Fold these 2 entries.
Entry 1:
Amino acid sequence: MAPEEPKLRRTAADWEERYVDGDTPWDTGMVDPALRELVEAGCLKPCRAIEFGCGTGTNAVYLAQHGFAVTGVDYSQLAIEQARHKAAAAGVAIAWQAGDLAEFAAPAEPFELLFDRGCYHCMRRAGLLAAYQAAVGRLLTSGARIVILAGNSDDTQEGGPPKVSAADLCGDFQKLCRIESLAAHRFEDLGGKPGPLAWKLVMTRR
Ligand SMILES: C[S@@+](CC[C@H](N)C(=O)[O-])C[C@H]1O[C@@H](n2cnc3c(N)ncnc32)[C@H](O)[C@@H]1O
């Protein structure tokens, strides 16, 4: 088992500050290749989708452009404001919500897809795993697909995103979800360069 990283509790204000300061290395402006592949291969079909921790909305906009009815939630007001501009420029309608996804009320019709690039691992490291799991249980319908991209503890480089082992990742979701696939992935850095080692986890909500 990988050694536990120290808890790093970031508040909504901390995240806002990072967007205000432009300290957002994850915000490449490029659609994540893992999401693109799943959509282009027809593994994810248009449906009611939510992105947890959507940041400035690049992946949410991509999903909307491909026929998904998208809701994007993020702590940061500024990120959501930028996401709104991105969606307007792309001519797509997205329901944006600035706030804590742990407090996001269950919709009348639960979501059929959850996409998450980098939010799960942050909430886990902040000691908020139970809140994350509760949101998955509350907001998604049975049979919903879940795609999570998270830092990989096999990465030997210091720094970078929070890292999770395969065993911990599977353990966090095995009660709530059926795991379809778990594969190594890479977050890209600015300019599309291969960046930190990651996981691509695809699951179905039980
Ligand atoms: C590493 S960033 C990734 C952003 C985006 N998914 C991307 O790929 O550009 C993690 C994001 O999760 C958001 N976040 C973390 N905890 C959250 C929470 N409890 N509720 C809503 N957003 C949260 C942060 O504000 C931040 O934008």
Entry 2:
Amino acid sequence: MDFTLSDEQLALQQSVRKFAQQELPDIARQIEESDEPASIELRRRFGELGYLGVNLDEQYGGAGMSHLDAVIVLEEIAKISIAVAFPVFESCFGPSLAIAHFGSDEMRSRILPRVCAGEIVVAVSMSEPNAGSALTDLSTQARVESNRVVLNGSKRWCSGAGHSEAYIVYCRMDDIPGAKGIGAVLVDKDSAGFSFGKRDHHMGFRGVASADMYFDNVEVPLQNVLVAAGGFGKLMDAFDLERCGNTTMSLAVAQSAFDYVLEYCQVRQQFGKSLIDFQAVQLQIAEMKMKLEASRLLLYRAVVNAEKGLPSIAESSVAKCFANEAAREVTGKAMQLMGGYGYSKEFPLEQKLRDAWGWGIAGGAIDIQKVNIAASLVGRRFNQRAK
Ligand SMILES: Cc1cc2nc3c(=O)[nH]c(=O)nc-3n(C[C@H](O)[C@H](O)[C@H](O)COP(=O)(O)OP(=O)(O)OC[C@H]3O[C@@H](n4cnc5c(N)ncnc54)[C@H](O)[C@@H]3O)c2cc1C
């Protein structure tokens, strides 16, 4: 096994890092202060640089590179902030990849080039007020009527809600209860009858819009069906790749917190010496480094083994779960090592900790990932509803 990045990948990493460090910190600060999402100008800039749809086919405007290349790009941008990186995350690991793998040629050609150019962001909307971890309880209806689909229901916690131009909406397309009746439909933001509730304000994730979404007889053309009823398995297969994006975001937040505090510990003096000269501090730093390395290797394994396809549920769940927990631990330790400065909003660590926490809820709670991991070990799903 070769764990080294190629010369091309190292060059890619260097160039994205240089761009991110030069151009993104001020934008990230404004987004954090205003809580307003990344502008279309920034998205277009990402598009020009080839940072959107890194792992989508060139035929659809992507860079035609590997998932690992996409991880490299996303990590460097997300080290600045997850909010600036969100359009990159969505285009490389979000529902656009479900469209690339399971959409019709017509849908791919219509949507993906616009995603890669930064003209639109496609968000994923699965969760509902009464269907979170129990996703297969979702009740938003999509009724097929000759050449159109009519949606009714409501959604919650969609990242991008009200800001993204299009949504992949998981819905019940058949009367069969549970997973079998679930499919997914693409809905444009400006569809008649589609509306948004008041903006949610999370503890972190500032600049990532979220709101309830309401569908009141929303009509979309039949060609907007991404997968019909019975295709829930495909949606979950695509979601295995989304988990790798979630892992990358967790890793980036933790890595950037670590880089900052490692420098800080060498500069900050107490009792007449640098913090790093205290053995208790050295142990914290070593433990953080170990968690980061392990997160990175699990992530690389999941995406490299997927090649151009989709990763396995086992490898993507192990990577996500581990990196989610590591990010919480590393950002917490980093904040503590900075004492009062870590807790102050004048320094970046408190934001890192707030952002880190959310990734262990988004994309499926940590304990749900652990249930997936155990299921994959014994080769069967566990019935969470059994009394
Ligand atoms: C920052 C953020 C971004 C998000 N973005 C999106 C998005 O873009 N699109 C979208 O559709 N959704 C999104 N979500 C929603 C997210 O997917 C759900 O919050 C998540 O699946 C958990 O559902 P819930 O909040 O209803 O919690 P619940 O399902 O009520 O679970 C609460 C807790 O109970 C425990 N639990 C529940 N069931 C079990 C079980 N069977 N075994 C063990 N423990 C269990 C878990 O610890 C869990 O954390 C986002 C959430 C956050 C916080």
